[in-house]
Specification:
Elements lengths: L1 H16 L16 E6 L2 E10 L2 E6 L3 E6 L7 E6 L2 E10 L2 E6 L2 E8 L1 H7 L13 E3 L4 E6 L6 E2 L4 E7 L2 E6 L4 E6 L6 E2 L4 E5 L1
Antiparallel strand pairs: 1-2, 1-8, 2-3, 3-4, 4-5, 5-6, 6-7, 7-8, 9-16, 10-12, 10-15, 11-14, 12-13, 14-16
């Protein structure tokens, strides 16, 4: 999958090199040949060379020849890896592609050595713990609060009603909870992800 990610990145960069209406006299854009792929917590480094439409990616353990007529925007990459026919789903993401093949899905981030060095310095964003709060799923008006502080609620029971675009949406408990604090009141206008109440 790392080879497919590098091949996609190489094709995207080739496309950028051939943008029309470039200024005369300026040097042609050149891209770094070394690519580093971060895939499923592993790191793969490869040197890219192109000859007669086929791309050779020299990984540390062995070179791999990749041939494909894939074009940016196509949802399926079809080609060969060392002569073996492969098809993979491809979706662009920031700094890479999301790949799917044979039931396995992974995000492959493709960097130059300098970009990989800088990406390693970026802090990991921790996912917010939203299991202890009820968030407003859309901008809207709180029409009714159907529980009180200290009340025990079973999964599926209604907690609040929010009106958005003239429709009343009932927000229900996803699991058994006890209401710890109610932060919104009836008539409040809330934004997306505003906290309505907290659970104990």
């Amino acid at each position: 999958m790392a080879a497919i990610a590098i091949a996609c990145d190489h094709r995207l960069n080739s496309r950028k090199r051939h943008v029309s209406a470039q200024m005369e006299g300026w040097r042609k854009v050149e891209f770094e040949r070394t690519r580093i792929v971060s895939l499923g917590g592993e790191r793969f480094e490869g040197q890219v060379t192109e000859q007669s439409g086929a791309v050779t990616i020299a990984f540390a353990d062995r070179p791999m020849t990749v041939a494909s007529d894939w074009r940016p925007g196509e949802p399926v990459w079809r080609g060969t890896l060392d002569g073996v026919t492969i098809a993979a789903q491809v979706r662009p993401i920031l700094n890479g592609v999301a790949l799917g093949h044979a039931g396995a899905y992974a995000n492959a981030h493709v960097y130059t050595p300098r970009e990989a060095e800088l990406a390693a310095l970026m802090p990991e964003k921790a996912a917010a713990d939203t299991g202890k709060v009820l968030l407003c799923p859309m901008p809207g008006l709180v029409k009714a609060l159907l529980v009180t502080v200290g009340q025990e609620v079973k999964a599926g029971e209604p907690l609040a009603m929010v009106e958005a675009m003239k429709m009343e949406n009932v927000l229900r408990a996803e699991k058994d909870v006890t209401i710890a604090k109610i932060l919104a009141k009836e008539g409040d206008s809330l934004a997306v992800d505003a906290v309505i109440m907290e659970f104990a």
